[in-house]
Every structure is written in structure tokens, then in C-alpha cells.
Amino acid sequence: MRITKNSFENKLANNELVISIIGMSNIGKTHWSKKLKDSDFEHKCCDDLIEKILEPELQALGYKGLADLAKWLGYPYEDKFMVNQQQYIQHECNVMENILKELDKRKTKNITIDTTGSVIYTGDYICKRLKEKSLIIFIESTPQMQTEMFQRFLSNPKPIVWAHSFTKKEKEDNMAALKRCYPELLKYRTSQYRRHADIIIPYKRIERDLSSEQFLELIKSYLR
To answer: What is the CATH number of domain 5-221?
Structure first.
């Protein structure tokens, strides 16, 4: 959604502003989506909605929470991964379709859509509709952050769709393959996030202690 600073202010004041935050896992999408609740935004968390759909299957395995959802999805070198990945993407498509339908109704609150890192794999049709109905903000990591993000991925597991970004060489162990392919995953996703974004905010421009009002002002500063 291409909007001006004036339009942004008007939509915000009239409870008609819809913001979608995109970017890699562990980049801060959920942190800032929740922060905007302080400014009375409704928070739509796609991870939570997908987990809700999968709840019966997760409960049967004794799983609960985002870390366990990542455990259910698995790593790209595991036999179960391809089947679970396809199932996950289908659920994500359904979640996004439902959110987009809700946006067609009259809004009484400003809304933040807290997307998953894999929203780009829902296809151009859904991403195009999301852009028509919301201001898409891409929080972009720097190349220097790749090692840190990889360590976060290992220590704070979140479900990650790899699609075709993972390969394993002969005699290469699983961890070495993950470490080699992760930068390629970031590179591909960055190109897709940039393609769909209305504005791009470098991660280093966002201080973690910003208030919701300051975060909104930062977003507005990127508009014309």
C-alpha cells in the first residue's frame, strides 16, 4: 500500500491503518507487533494462528508452543521435513486468506499483521493482496548479522520453511550444511521481502527501547 505521511496520519487517527511486518525469523516482527498494542493496535499473529490449526496434531505428540511447532516441522535434512513443510505452507495460505477476508470488513481498530518469515512462500497472489490492503514494512538484517541470526535460529528455534534453499554435499554433516545454506536462505528471502515491501527499515535503525509512538514515527519518516 503506497501512502503518504498525511494519509498515514489520517488512517491512524481513524483506526483504518493496517501494517504488515515482514522479515526473517528472530528479526523482531513479533516484538514490534506486540509493542503496537500499546497504541491500541489489534495484533494478528500468524504463527499463533498456524499453531492453532495444528493444535490437535501437536497435542498428540505432546507439543505446545512455537519451539515445539519448530520441532514438529523439523530440520530440512530430516525425512519428515518436506511433507510437514508443504502442510505448513498450506496452513499459512489459509491463515493469510482468512486475515485478508477480515480486512475487507469495516475496521474499528488499527491492525498489525505479524507475518511469519515464510509469508513469501504463500505466492504472489496472496502477497499482492496483502500489499493492496496493508502497509508492508520489511525489517532488513545486515550481512554482519548472519552469524548472530544463525545462532538465534539454533538457540531459539522457530519454524523455518527452507523450500529449495537447502542442499547437502557428499560427506557433509547436517550442521555444516545448515551453516553453509543459511546465508543463501537469507539472500533469497531478502530479495523477495524487498520485492513485496512498501518501506524497508534497516534493523540497526530500530532501537529496542522505542515506544510504540516512536516506532510509528519511525515508520512515518520513511513515507513521502
So the answer is: 3.40.50.300
